[in-house]
Structure formats: C-alpha cells, structure tokens
Amino acid sequence: MLRQLQDRISSRARKRRGQFLMRVVDLPLNARILDLGGATGRHIHDVLPCHSDITVCDISERDLKAARETYGYKTVLLQESGNLPFHDKEFDFCFCSSVIEHVTAPKHDVWNITGDAAFRSIARERQGQFAREIARVAKRFYVQTPYRYFFIESHTCLPGIIVLLPRRLQIALFRFINRFWFASTDPEWYLLDWREMAETFPDAKIYRERYLCMTKSLMAVKA
Asked: H or E element: which one contains 96?
C-alpha cells in the first residue's frame, strides 16, 4: 500500500514537472534530447510524449534495453567516471531528473565512507563535474533533484530529519530498515540545498517545486 501511494505521488509529480517544463522551455519536435540517467525512458516519455529524437543514458543495461524495446529510444550505457561520451553541444536539450543526488562516491565504497565531511567532499566534487558535463554536451538543460529539507526524504520515505543525522548513524539506520522497509536504499545519495544547487549550476535559473506550501524539489533550468 505504501509503495502504491509513493507511485501515485511520483506520477503526479512527473505530470506537474512536464507541465512546468513546457511553460519555461520551448522545445521543437525535432530537438535532439538527452535523457541523462533516464532508466527505462518512462519518465521522459511521460514528460515529452511527442518527441522522438531522444537518447537515454544510464548505468543499467537492463533499463536501457527496456527503453529501446518500449519506446524505440536510442540508448547509451554510462560508466561511473562522470564523463559523458558526447561532443560539445551535441544535444539541444538535456533532461535529468532525480539523478544528480546519486552522483557521489563509487557505489562499491558508499557503505565504507562513514565520515560526513569526507562523503560530502567526494559528492560535491563529483556533482560539480557532472553539472559541467551537462552544460558541455547540451545547449540547454533541466536538472531536478529532491530538496534536502523536505519533510519526507524521498529515497527512504522516512521523515526528512534523517538527513541531519551523522552519516555513521544513517548507515546503521539503513542497514536496519533495509531488512523490512519497502523503500530500501544504499547510502549513496547526497541531497542538495538551494545554495549548493545554485553553486552547481551558476548559468541556470533555480526554481522551487512546492508541495503543501513547502519546497519538495529544486530545478535548475537553462532555457
């Protein structure tokens, strides 16, 4: 039941973001679009159902196979290096939703990095590099990420106060709840606040996505 509720909320959020995107960015139907971290392609299809020149990039070959077979999208398998295998300004637009918070330490190391300062340093360096790559390969972009201080943490569906816990305690909590909680997670995400989002995308306008009068997510848009 909780999973179904989460899926309904996520579906409504995708619809709102699609409407917002259409208001702030003029995308012709022949635009070359990069869906960065797009998994199966479902999200970009929900947001831009009439566009066809879409390249979905992800680290999951299984998800990319679904994107090809379900929507006929072009796909590119990404490595964790942070470098994108594209030429400068190869795309007219980059769409990147709920991805940048996962661009942190190498996945095999995240359980072992228990220091707050160490993890933040690695995460912010990689997120900065990721943002620069987006600006390099696309003329315009939309990057959305959950807001650090929303009252529900989106990856765990737990009270947002967990982001304030020392990382060592977060890891211990995740080890425990992953045994039974429906929203299991690895400690590999680092959520951004407003200042960090603005620093990461200095050439973009930062928008707030609100829910119940509170900031739910941040969106960096270069239109």
From this structure: strand 91-97
Task: Give residue-wise pLDDT tens across range 150-177.
Answer: 999 999 999 999 999 999 999 999 999 9
207: tokens are: 């928008």
Measured CA to CA in angstroms, residue 28 lies from 19, 33, 72, 97 at distances of: 15, 10, 19, 20
Closest Cα to residue 100, out of 178, 197, 28? 197
What tokens were used for 141? 């972009």
When pLDDT is cut at 50, 70 and 90, the band that residue 13 belongs to is confident
- pLDDT, position 108: 92
Report whether 104 contacts 127 (CB < 8 A).
yes
- Residue 150, token pair as written in the block: 């929303």
Least confident of 63-72, 74-83, 102-111, 147-156: 74-83
DSSP 8-state symbol, 141 = E
Question: CA–CA separation, 27 vs 221, rounded Å?
Answer: 13
Chain mean position to CA 87: 22
Spatial distance between the Cα atoms of 1 and 3, rounded to a whole number of angstroms: 5
Calpha distance 90→92 (Å, rounded): 7
- Alpha-carbon gap, residue 94 to 48, rounded angstroms: 12
* Other Cβ atoms closer than 10 A to 150: 19
- Write down the pLDDT at residue 123: 97
